[in-house]
Structure formats: structure tokens, C-alpha cells
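Write out the 3D structure for:
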Amino acid sequence: MLHLHGIWTAPQAVASRLGVQYGIPGIISFHGQLLEEAVERASLTARLKKQHYMRWIGNRIVRQARVLHAITGQERDRLKQLFPDSIIEVIPNYIDVDAVEREIAQVNQNTGDEDKQVLFLGRLDERKGVSLLLEAFLCADLPDDWSLCIAGPEDTPGLRARLEHMAKHSGVRKNRIKISGPVYGQDKWRLLAGSSLVCLPSFHEVIGMVNLEAAVCGKPVLTTPYTGLEGWEKAGGVLVDPSVKALADALRQVASWSDSERISRGASLKAWVSNHYSLKRIRTQWVELYGEASK
């Protein structure tokens, strides 16, 4: 079995050709590369390059694949639109729930009436909506016991400096907005465990893994409809459009929840993710798909 991840680079083109040469059946996972949001937010030059690539190379790779893999229903619909004659199967990203629970069990979790924290954990990239979140936090005018923590590696050059400048001149007490670099290992899990709300207002994301990780930590998660999380609101999460007003309104709503409601929503979200995105469940789907595609 040949499983290609992505379509835009030479390794996929070469591997596809070799697969045909040696009679090896293939599957392609696009990881959201062909979603309309991803295409529209690319530069004009990038769009033109990709149009020519698909015409001369990409479409041939797709035709030679036995199955196209979509991570979400939204991606499936897009692939059906582009390649109506192809077989398309949906299998979402997975999370190892047991591994996350082991990590959380090793970190110190504060309890009691500590300050409440909104956490953004991810790449500092404009597509992740981090600037919107900071603006929304300032507009929401939450009670003084609420703070915002932004943590992650800088992906858009100069973005961290702009965020720090915005926070410095906001008039908000200094320790209510914290902006740091990337966190890993126990520091990452400690940050998740100590937060009251995780918020990743991405403009485009196939399935944001931090959303799943936060849910398994038992935290309510506020994100957007463009992150591939179907059924999220029914499970206890919050979905809003990536705009300052919508985010500010949602932050006020979350701040109005009682401690028991936040805990209840986090527990409900954890159960939902464990049931729909666990490694055990997704692994079975992949074994079945590989078996069918190889016949």
C-alpha cells in the first residue's frame, strides 16, 4: 500500500509514478490542502502556481490513487466537487486519550479560587486568529480575575512583537495578558491543565489537535466552524465565527458560566472526543480502509 500525504511536492509525484510502475495501490490524504479556505488565503502567485501544477501533475496523481482520504465531512464535500469520479473515505485525526491522561496525571493541577485563564496554544500565525483573540479579549472587558495567555512559536514574522505592542498599550493590567514562546512536554500539559478555557479561533484548520488535547484535559474549548470539529457544540464546546465581536461575545458568555458549568462542559467534551477521535476507534477504521483499498 502506498499512502501519500499531501500533493504539492516532488516526493508525492515521484512516489505516485513508482506506485503505478510497480502496481502498488495508493491512498492520498490531502490534509486540507484543497479546501476553499486554504486556496483563497494563498497569494495570487501561489494560486496560479497550484493551478498549473494540478493541470499538469496533480490531477494525474489523483486519478492514479485508488482512494482519496478526507479528514472531515467538509473536506469530503470539497473533494467530491473537484474529483466526482473518485472514491472518497472520511477518517478524522485521532488522539491517544490514554497517553494524554498519563501526561495530565503527572502535572500539578491547582484547585480552588485561582484566577481564570483563557489559553491560546499554537503557532503564532494570522491564520490561527491569535490577533483576533487578543482584540476580542480587550473588547470583552471580562472581570479582573480573567487573564489571557498566548503561547506558541512565531510563524508569521513580527506577529509576536505586534501582539506584545497591542497588549502593552491596551491599558489592561500587565499580568492579565501573557505572551510567551513555545512550550513542550510537561510545561505544555501544565498550561492546559491550569486553564479555564482554551480558545483557538482559526480561520482554517482541518482538525486542530490542540482542541482535542484540551478536551481530553477536561477543558471547554472555544473555536470556529472552520476547524473540522463536527458536533462540537452539542458536546459542550463553543463554535463562533472568527471575528472580534463574535469572539468577545463568546468570551463574555464563558465568563458568565459557573465553575460547575465549566467543569461539566469540559467533562462532556472529553467524553465526546474519547468516543469519536480516540486512537482505538480511528485505528480500526484505517485497518479496514487499507484492507479494502489493497484488494
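Strands lie at 2-5, 26-29, 67-70, 88-90, 116-121, 146-151, 177-180, 197-200, 221-223, 238-239.
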